[in-house]
Amino acid sequence: xxxxxxxxxxxxxxxxxxxxxxxxxxxxxxxxxxxxxxxxxxxxxxxxxxxxxxxxxxxxxxxxxxxxxxxxxxxxxxxxxxxxxxxxxxxxxxxxxxxxxxxxxxxxxxxxxxxxxxxxxxxxxxxxxxxxxxxxxxxxxxxxxxxxxxxxxxxxxxxxxxxxxxxxxxxxxxxxxxxxxxxxxxxxxxxxxxxxxxxxxxxxxxxxxxxxxxxxxxxxxxxxxxxxxxxxxxxxxxxxxxxxxxxxxxxxxxxxxxxxxxxxxxxxxxxxxxxxxxxxxxxxxxxxxxxxxxxxxxxxxxxxxxxxxxxxxxxxxxxxxxxxxxxxxxxxxxxxxxxxxxxxxxxxxxxxxxxxxxxxxxxxxxxxxxxxxxxxxxxxxxxxxxxxxxxxxxxxxxxxxxxxxxxxxxxxxxxxxxxxxxxxxxxxxxxxxxxxxxxxxxxxxxxxxxxxxxxxxxxxxxxxxxxxxxxxxxxxxxxxxxxxxxxxxxxx
Length: 492
Hints:
Blueprint: H1 16-20, H2 31-44, H3 57-64, H4 68-80, E1 84-87, E2 91-94, H5 114-122, H6 144-156, H7 172-183, E3 194-197, H8 200-211, E4 218-223, H9 227-235, E5 239-246, E6 249-250, H10 252-262, E7 266-269, H11 283-296, E8 299-303, H12 321-325, E9 330-335, E10 347-350, H13 353-366, H14 372-383, H15 386-411, E11 425-429, H16 436-444, E12 465-469, H17 470-473, H18 478-491
């Protein structure tokens, strides 16, 4: 349909009945996400053609019996993810032609979409049999006793500490603890260049808000890579340039080619225990990346959220770019959410003085109060010494789980490009080019939540990949169920 001739007959397939069909019994999606899924499913199924106009916000609000604000936010999200485009004065139109899911025998309308799986992993339903695809440790692995003691210690302190606004850079004693912690990984950061955040995701958002405000600006990301990072950047309207991740880090030829052609200003990556592969950047590649950063005026955002799951003995075998660069061109991001508790949203960002100054400005505008209680709890855990012992126990338990999980997957015919010796994840290739999304959907119907490879990549080649959280896979009923499905497929 020509751009200048919008349809005057909005589709009638978007209604309350279609909306009610989106969520399965295991889902707990918000109305915004359900409208998002409903529209994307109909695009993929061919019910909404490229260039076709959708309902107005008011029309869809009436048809689905939801508020206009809900529809407006869903449309904004669809635009941010590249499914729709907004034409001022005309409405919302389908931007891209749908495509059926690859390697799936079911109709596209009944096949799950990557967007649905990301929601399932971020907000897992209650009552699942297993969650091998989740990105968190089992609740029973967390230091509940230590966390309780820290909370009680904060509660006993004077309430006056919590009456006023928190320091915009975070609780000073915690930043002093972080300064000492960073020295252990050869990063020399004065407290003035450390900012405490509400987790790593919040740190990334602050960086985007303060330094990447131009819609359509190209930024570099690793492929495969964390889906929450990709979604966060896309929701900000940025154009993602995907750099293939090799066994020893980002592909340097692809990185250089992007720098020459697009001149991006930022590269988001992970040096240690990369998700989903659990791989590390080799020292020589880290050095070459920093040389490219100098040549092309590139800022590197190094996410080290899994840092404390790496054994101290292995610290000399890996290289963090922030330790080589000392925060000149590298912005270093860390988090405690993986090790303390997912609900304890405390992270941090370290950078040069100019970057910290910009982050302070945007932090003041959007989050003036900070996370005072959480920051004091984390300070208690770090300063009393229990946190180091807790992380050592986590690493030991992960080591006990990892090889048995690899052995079980190998017995089913799965293969591995690399076999990690640390971290939470194993990145496996399913046997016989089995479509991981279709397999995950079949397992989800029996209550097993997986993490198929297409969630972590925007390119072809990962349809048969699956990420397994070893802490939630060892002894899980998911693997026997998966084995039965794979065996049935071989016999078919």
